[in-house]
Write a structure and sequence with these properties.
Chain B: InterPro entries: MetI-like, MetI-like_sf. Chain B: It is a multi-pass membrane protein. Chain B: This is Carbohydrate ABC transporter permease. The complex is a heterodimer. Chain A is built from 15 helices and no strands. Chain A has helices spanning about 1-20, 30-35, 40-45, 50-70, 70-80, 85-100, 105-115, 120-130, 140-170, 170-180, 185-210, 215-225, 230, 235-245, 250-275. Chain A has one domain: MetI-like fold (Orthogonal Bundle), CATH 1.10.3720. Chain A is globular, with a radius of gyration of 23 Å. Chain B has a domain at about 65-235: Orthogonal Bundle (MetI-like fold), CATH 1.10.3720. The model of chain B is unreliable at about 235-250 (pLDDT under 50). Classes of the chains: A mainly alpha, B mainly alpha.
Chain lengths: ~280, ~290
């Protein structure tokens, strides 16, 4: 127990205390403790910084896209899988769609570049067929949909696990009873399937909300260059760029802390709303 | 239930085929291109769906003692050492938290769950690693991610599911905690341990960001090499990627690096896949 606890104390609570740097003007030579306090100056600067608001806007935009397109994808896939009558086919499909989850973002981004890049599979095929090529990777307008498609490719399959388990627990008798009452497939889906898995959907939604300001740090950082910060900067990459590359440590820590506080507040709020609506929520 | 209509069946079949294709075709193309000869790749405009004359030349070139070989060694070492350390620490902590009456069990659990809700942030974590003098050491890639809270909860849930009678019987026979953990709990938890070790191994194998900020290029793991030479598009020849000095079509070489970075995962995956649902769900439901 001791090494484990020590790990949490040092690397989580230790780092947590190091958040104090957000209220300081960090001077590398003096170190964290000797650097002068500056109160909330870093935060004031942040709220007046157009780059910060750019990053914020990009983050929220991608988060909303993810919520609309990525969130329901595993549910849809799970419903498809659940409705397959062949056991073998279902298992095979499951094995295949879980796989991309285990690839690193470096591999996934490289893969997408090789398929969709300007000399990639798609464009080679298009130009061989005498058609216009499309620039997807370097096109700022395509960036946001692209990153959402990447997330779907990587993790929608993995996300089906929890929905499949929920679908498995739906009482067969409910289906039979409603079929006898004359409910067609759509009615059964609407009145039996969905209500049965509602707690799981809400649970995942709350967890997603708490994380809404994190929209895939590694993924964004890897691709930020191809379209530039105007379009590609999100809060996490903003923190990284300012603090680790730019050396503006106190300022970047302030942005990171702001993100953390908002995220935690969102989880609490979402959880409370869920309780109000009579759902289980996440506990905690 | 009545028989599904033909149209529904056909639609489902199409959907399944499309889903499978979307996942599998990129893999196929990458493996094929890495195996194709330079001439075939160039003739095809950079792409090969099925190599007519497969060759391992690209692999021989990059595994000839250059930077990829070195990075492969780093990645393997990091994955093995990291997984073992993480697994050991997670198991001990999970066991302590799963047993009732351990001193301070409840507050410690809350303390840990809190970190899940409120992670410390990138900059403070960076300052900490720098502050304790771990820059450019392999410890920087292991220590800050030693225990994953999700894995901890999965294991704790599993340990709690073991019948209390077994613990009591062992106690009556005079077994201590170590003995109970080693002889009774671990053998019964193989499925959960398998899943947790896979998760750790994959995360160490895939680790990229920490390596990119903490490590000098001499100590890069494979993912950072991949990032630099495949995504970043840095020229392969002038960086000593190929010591042999052969000029290989960059496409085949890049694909070969990509395949090497992916293959270990593909190899362990089928063995562990059957434990996924069980392991993941016990954790998810219990938490």
């Amino acid at each position: 127990m001791v090494p484990g606890l020590a790990y949490f104390l040092v690397f989580h609570y230790g780092a947590f205390i190091a958040n104090a740097v957000a209220f300081k003007e960090y001077v590398p030579f003096d170190g964290l403790w000797a650097s002068p306090w500056v109160g909330t100056a870093n935060f004031e600067r942040m709220f007046g910084d157009p780059d910060f608001w750019h990053a914020m806007w990009n983050t929220l935009f991608i988060a909303v896209l993810q919520l609309v397109f990525f969130f329901p994808a595993p549910l849809a896939l799970a419903l498809l899988l659940h409705s397959l009558t062949s056991d073998l086919l279902r298992r095979l499909t499951q094995s295949v769609i879980y796989l991309p989850h285990f690839l690193s973002w470096v591999v996934v981004v490289a893969l997408f570049q090789q398929v969709l890049g300007d000399t990639g599979l798609l464009n080679t095929t298009l130009s061989d067929a005498g058609l216009h090529t499309v620039d997807i990777i370097g096109n700022p307008d395509a960036y946001k949909p692209l990153v959402v498609i990447e997330v779907i490719w990587k993790d929608a399959g993995w996300g089906t696990i929890i929905f499949l388990a929920a679908l498995m627990q739906v009482d067969e008798q409910l289906y039979e009873a409603s079929a006898i009452d004359g409910a067609g497939p759509w009615r059964r889906f609407w009145h039996v399937t969905l209500p049965s898995i509602r707690p799981i959907i809400i649970l995942l939604l709350i967890m997603r909300l708490g994380d809404i300001l994190s929209v895939g740090f590694e993924q964004m950082l890897l691709q930020r260059q191809s379209v530039g910060p105007e379009v590609g900067e999100v809060l996490d990459t903003f923190v990284f760029w300012q603090g680790i590359v730019g050396g503006d440590t106190g300022y970047a820590a302030a942005a990171g802390l702001f993100k953390g506080v908002v995220g935690a507040a969102l989880v609490f709020t979402a959880n409370r709303v869920a309780h109000r609506l009579g759902e289980q929520g996440v506990y905690k | 239930m009545e028989k599904p209509r033909f149209a529904t069946k056909a639609a489902k079949a199409v959907a399944v085929v499309v889903v499978l294709g979307l996942v599998l075709i990129p893999f196929l193309v990458i493996v094929s291109t890495s195996l194709a000869s330079n001439r075939e790749v160039v003739d095809n405009g950079g792409w090969v769906l099925w190599p007519s004359d497969p060759t391992l030349r690209a692999y021989r070139t990059i595994l000839d003692g250059g930077i990829v070989t070195k990075a492969l060694g780093v990645s393997v070492g990091l994955t093995v050492a990291g997984t073992l350390l993480s697994l050991a620490c997670t198991t001990f902590l999970a066991y302590a938290l799963a047993r009732p009456g351990v001193f301070g069990g409840r507050p410690v659990l809350l303390l840990i769950l809190f970190t899940f809700l409120f992670p410390p942030g990138m900059i403070p974590a960076f300052l900490l690693v720098k502050g304790v003098g771990m820059m450019d050491t392999y410890a920087a890639l292991i220590a800050p991610v030693l225990i994953n809270v999700f894995n901890l909860i999965v294991l704790r849930g599993f340990f709690q599911g073991i019948p209390e009678e077994l613990y009591e019987a062992a106690r009556l026979d005079g077994a201590g905690d170590w003995h109970i953990l080693w002889r009774i709990v671990l053998p019964l938890s193989k499925a959960a341990l398998a899943v947790v070790s896979l998760f750790y191994a994959v995360s160490y194998w895939n680790a990229w960001f920490h390596a990119s900020i903490y490590m000098e290029s001499d100590h890069w793991p494979l993912s950072q090499v991949l990032r630099t030479y495949v995504i970043g598009g840095s020229q392969i020849a002038d960086t000593g990627l190929s010591e042999a000095g052969q000029v290989s079509a960059p496409q085949t070489t890049q694909m070969a690096v990509l395949v090497i970075a992916t293959v270990p995962i593909l190899l362990v995956y089928p063995f562990l896949q059957r434990y996924f649902t069980k392991g993941v769900l016990t954790g998810a439901i219990k938490s």
